[in-house]
Amino acid sequence: MPGTLYLIPNTLGPANADQADPFASIIPFEVQVITARLDYFIAENAKTTRAFLKLIASMHPLAKPLQEIQIAELNINTDAATLPALLEPLLAGRNAGLISEAGVPAVADPGANLVRLAHGCGVAVKPLVGPSSLLLAVMASGLNGQSFAFNGYLPIDPQQRAKRIKLLEERSRQEKQTQLFIETPYRNNALLEALATTCQPGTLISIATDLTLDSETIKTQTAAKWKSKLTSGKMPDVHKKPTVFLLLAE
Q: Residue 249, by phi and psi: left (phi above 0), alpha (psi -120 to 50) or beta?
């Protein structure tokens, strides 16, 4: 019988290793226990996964010494032709954990292709509870939580980015749908400025930064107010800070 592929949530930023429970209020206890029982992981980043497991080991005994735990990488550079090999241990009856670099795996994450293949191979898939920056941002934004869409990354080119923002704004207006997107952290400030200057004055724009961390900030206001902050030099600095952007045109 094939093993189970556990979808393991990771923290959204550095955990406080000095705390008695560095995952307090972030990763449920039972998820920690399940993670500690596994000796095979498929990870977006092996280095961050080892750091995650080291914190798990401070509270729960691992199935094997950390250096003996197998970690295979699956990221945007992984050739799709290699995915079946990642599932071979599961088809032989071994359980495995799929873990993202941050947040939940298979959402805005290359692990989705492996999950699809697992279903096709008859491998049981078990999602575990943990932090999702996208859902947390929707919850805290005050925008429409009944209908929303995640659009990934917007174009880098300023003109193409502005065109895409206008398209999403019009879709939001027509469908009354919240639009979500993210950016490479070092381009966050440029995206926030583009939203403030491209969107209609009454469009609501929300930014959720460093979610679940001590530095967490969440702010929702109209494009006109964001533009006013830009003009007065009072825009928040979200440079190199993980941020989710949302808009709702009314």
A: beta
CATH fold of 4-127, please?
Cobalt-precorrin-4 Transmethylase; domain 1 (3.40.1010)
- In which band, very low, low, confident or very high, does the pLDDT at 17 lie, cut at 50, 70 and 90? low
N- to C-terminal Cα separation, the chain: 52
Q: With H, G, I as helix, E, B as strand and everything else as coil, classify residue 141.
A: helix
Per-residue pLDDT band for 15 (boundaries 50, 70, 90) equals: confident
The residues spanned by each domain of the chain are 4-127, 133-248
* Stretch among 3-17, 32-46, 129-143, 204-218 having the lowest mean pLDDT: 3-17
Does domain 133-248 fall under CATH 3.30.950.10? My reply is yes
Distance CA 184, CA 190 (A): 11
Are 38 and 5 in contact by the 8 Å Cβ rule? The answer is no
